[in-house]
Recover the amino acids of this structure.
C-alpha cells in the first residue's frame, strides 16, 4: 500500500475507536510514532477528523520541536540535549555528528541513510552524554564512538549489498 494511503487508513482507524481523541498533540505524537514523521496529508486528515483548520494543526505541530515533517533516515540518530547530557558536552557530540554526516540537526542525508535530531532527556542521565541509534541507547558518547557507529553501519551495509548482489547473480545464473 502506498504510504499516503497507509497514513490515511491509520488515521481513519485511530479515530474510529471508542476513546475520544481530543488532544491534538497526543494525536500527532501517535501519528509520528507510527510513521516516523508527520506528512502534509496526515496533518490535513487529522484537521478534518478533529474539525480544525489545517493552519491550526500545522501551527501546533511546528510549535513543538519533537515533530518532524520529513521521513527519517534508515538510521535515525537522536542526540540527547537534556540537562545532564548538556553538562557533559552534548553539544560537541551533536557537532561531531553534524560534521560526520554533513547535515544539520533536523535534516536527512541525501542518500536517506541517516537523519539527525535532538531529543530531551531519555531517562538515562547516568550514561550522559547519550545518543540513540534507532532504538538503541548509547551512553558515554564521544567523537570516537560516533566514528565507530558509522563504521559499523558502513560494514553492515556493504555486507548486505554484497549479499544481495550475490543472490541476484545466483538468480540470473
Ligand atoms: S539528560 Fe540526557 S539522558 Fe537525561
Amino acid at each position: 500500500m502506498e504510504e499516503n494511503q497507509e497514513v490515511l487508513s491509520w488515521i481513519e482507524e485511530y479515530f474510529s475507536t471508542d476513546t475520544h481523541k481530543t488532544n491534538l498533540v497526543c494525536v500527532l505524537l501517535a501519528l509520528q510514532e507510527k510513521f516516523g514523521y508527520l506528512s502534509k496529508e496526515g496533518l490535513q486528515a487529522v484537521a478534518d477528523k478533529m474539525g480544525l483548520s489545517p493552519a491550526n494543526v500545522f501551527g501546533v505541530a511546528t510549535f513543538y520541536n519533537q515533530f518532524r515533517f520529513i521521513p527519517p533516515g534508515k538510521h535515525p540518530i537522536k542526540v540527547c540535549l537534556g540537562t545532564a547530557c548538556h553538562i557533559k558536552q552534548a553539544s560537541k557530540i551533536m557537532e561531531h555528528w553534524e560534521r560526520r554526516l554533513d547535515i544539520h540537526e533536523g535534516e536527512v542525508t541525501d542518500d536517506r541513510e541517516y537523519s539527525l535530531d535532538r531529543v530531551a532527556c531519555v531517562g538515562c542521565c547516568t550514561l550522559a552524554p547519550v545518543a540513540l541509534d534507532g532504538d538503541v541507547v548509547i551512553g558515554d558518547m564521544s567523537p570516537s564512538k560516533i566514528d565507530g557507529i558509522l563504521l559499523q553501519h558502513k560494514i553492515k551495509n556493504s555486507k548486505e549489498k554484497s549479499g544481495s548482489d550475490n543472490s541476484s547473480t545466483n538468480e540470473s545464473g
Remarks:
- The chain has two domains: 3-63, 75-168.
- The beta strands are 75-80, 114-119, 131-133, 136-138.
- The pocket of FE2/S2 (inorganic) cluster is lined by residues 80, 82-85, 121-122, 124-125, 128, 130 (CB under 6 Å).
